[in-house]
Write a structure and sequence with these properties.
2 copies of one chain form a homodimer. Chain A is α/β, with parallel strands linked by helices and 394 residues long. Chain A has 12 helices and 15 strands. The termini of chain A are far apart.
């Protein structure tokens, strides 16, 4: 049977995931992987989980295991109002939609917003998962320039002059993959641009709480609440296996998100949501967050020190205040895909940066290095190996 | 801001859910609802859940809380091979994709298969959730006739003469909403038709284990494994709040389902999947299933007795061997939407049947009655009330 013939036109837009193929080697024995984008398992509050489970059973009983509202479990939405206030996002329980991870929010937004051919503005580089969420809906991407201070506001205004933009997608804080944080000045400026131009901005903010130095910045949402969909997740502050994310959205967008999500998965796991609600309302998140930060901070510092010690002077890298990634690049004609093969042969993996660009050619000489999944010694050794391989290329 | 202007063309296809509006009254105090489509909370194996949680923590530790394969948690896919064998579905772990409820499978199948305008064949009546999953992808529905023995195979052959059919969607066992079960003879016949015509059939089988009399029938999948995507769920045999379903699919479909699902939600909750894996492999499902059946069987019997005692002779109803629903209809010019208003005034709710038809006009004189959510006395009283209201319409 030629089932291929049955595939929708849309399916051509779903790219067979090259990064997935490349990263298959990562699970080889002895590999030190700086490629992952996942939290360290030792950051999960496992000892607290049994207590949270008992509390959920006592408080909600069978309701925690039943079908529930598409919008999300009410006690979680209530608790999220206080949680997002930490990011200066002012909202009500009614404006919150719980999603199946941030990915679920991105898919739903793509579904209700993107007509094939619509222009969608993303940073260069941007989060790969957003591209894979939006791709089936047929966007045309326009790339926004980024520098040390994050996305360059003028590049958005420039793109607006070329035609309407359906949505703008940003990870303003400790960006994946760039590691950069949008400055306060630019947050205000971008808020002004989206409000003045009636744009819709998706502010994806998964890493906010993983801050190792400096002060928290307000979300762009706080400067343009009617034009920003704010996304968060429990994947980095609790555990990703629960698959719980959330959106705070303007009313029209919220309403259509709920209707679309009903067709996609009815609702997100009630039990996962109840555990997240209890994690917030019991104060366990507040208690546990500093422990997560103290796991990652020395790993970040070790990677920065190793980069300074081992990488050749013609490489540059970001110096993130938080998150999970450092971004390295060069103006030379380095091809990090070739470097990847050599690195894997020496049991070190990373992600060649091209995968994070809507136009992959723009990322030939870039690489993403994760510092959350290995201890400082492993990180130091792995960066040392990469430094040797880079030096051979001078 | 006119955010409405930003909505995609696709969003016009996502119907603002009329059934949702109608059912809002169901939560009024004192209402006896025969409208729900949900399992009784007393059917959940709550006492076993703490044991399953301990077993998951002991066996998998942090892996149960980490990001995982889009395909699904390997121990669950392994355990599902034996579970689907109960339905005569022969497969391997590699062919199984775990989904976020059956709804997640339906959305993913719609995404990878349906190009706007494609003809999708559904029963009349059919499962509403399938329509809401497929709608955003722009299908044109063709309705397949059903009778006491389930879908009429000749009506599929007839529709094939009018043009190609992208996929056929059936709930062959204890159908929602019709309550009917496709006979063995027709299962074989439909298997033959889809194989001979290179069709893709989605066999949605959520109710199979809720059998109150008679012998289990083999899935259509067993007669045409290369042409059938078999869907199952833990929602009716464990608890719906976990949002775990699964698909057994031909290789091309399986592969694209995984790629599409990666963009939709990365993967289904690892922790929910680990609990389902433990529920299967510990034998707790085998032990608990007869308890669920013994909750529902007397409720089904009470509803059938009450229909026989209280409904006028010009109404007909299905006499299901299992599942959660009885379907009532008449050839008279009854409008069950009007009946609904009167019933709600007397504190009884049901679902007017029009919502289950791709062409709603075909369902004016039909209604769906759920028997899982109330005890036999409540069911008897509610059917009595409906019988009185129907008698007034003679």
């Amino acid at each position: 049977m030629l089932l291929e013939n049955l595939l929708s036109e849309r399916t051509r837009l779903i790219q067979s995931n090259a990064i997935r193929e490349i990263l298959k080697v990562v699970s080889q024995p002895g590999m030190v992987s700086l490629a992952g984008g996942i939290p360290a398992p030792e950051s999960f509050p496992l000892p607290a989980i049994a207590d949270l489970e008992r509390a959920v059973m006592d408080r909600y009983g069978s309701l925690a295991f039943q079908y529930d509202l598409t919008e999300g479990f009410v006690p979680l939405r209530d608790a999220l109002v206080g949680y997002v206030a930490r990011a200066s996002v002012s909202t009500t329980s009614e404006q919150v939609v719980v999603t199946s991870g941030s990915q679920g929010a991105l898919d739903t937004l793509g579904k209700i917003l993107i007509t094939p051919g619509d222009r969608v503005a993303v940073e260069a580089p941007t989060y790969l998962g957003a591209l894979s969420a939006f791709n089936p809906y047929g966007p045309e991407y326009v790339q926004l320039a980024t520098d040390e201070e994050g996305m360059v506001p003028e590049s958005l205004e420039e793109q607006l002059r070329h035609g309407p933009i359906k949505l703008v997608y940003l990870v303003p804080t400790f960006q994946n993959p760039g590691g950069r944080t949008l400055t306060l000045r630019r947050r205000k400026e971008i808020g002004r641009i989206v409000a003045e131009n009636d744009l819709l901005l998706v502010e994806d903010d998964p890493y906010r709480e993983l801050r190792y130095r400096g002060d928290a910045l307000p979300a762009i949402h706080s400067f343009a609440p009617d034009n920003v969909v704010y996304l968060g997740t429990f994947s980095k502050v609790f555990a990703p296996g629960f698959r719980v994310g959330f959106a705070v959205a303007p009313e029209v967008v919220r309403r259509w998100m709920v209707l679309a999500k009903q067709g996609t998965d009815l609702h997100t796991s009630t039990y996962s949501q109840a555990l997240c609600a209890e994690y917030l309302s019991s104060g366990e998140l507040e208690r546990h967050l500093p422990e997560i930060v103290e796991i990652y901070r020395p790993r970040r510092d070790a990677m920065i020190s190793a980069l300074e010690a081992c990488f050749p002077p013609w490489m540059q890298w970001s110096d993130p205040d938080g998150g999970m990634f450092i971004w390295a690049r060069t103006d030379s004609d380095l091809d990090t895909l070739k470097l990847y093969d050599d690195a894997v042969a020496r049991k070190v993996a990373f992600v060649p940066g091209r995968f994070f660009f809507a136009n992959p050619d723009d990322g030939r000489a870039t690489m993403r290095l994760n510092f959350t999944m290995n201890n400082p010694e492993q990180i130091t050794d792995a960066v040392h190996t990469l430094g040797e391989l880079l030096a051979e290329r001078e």
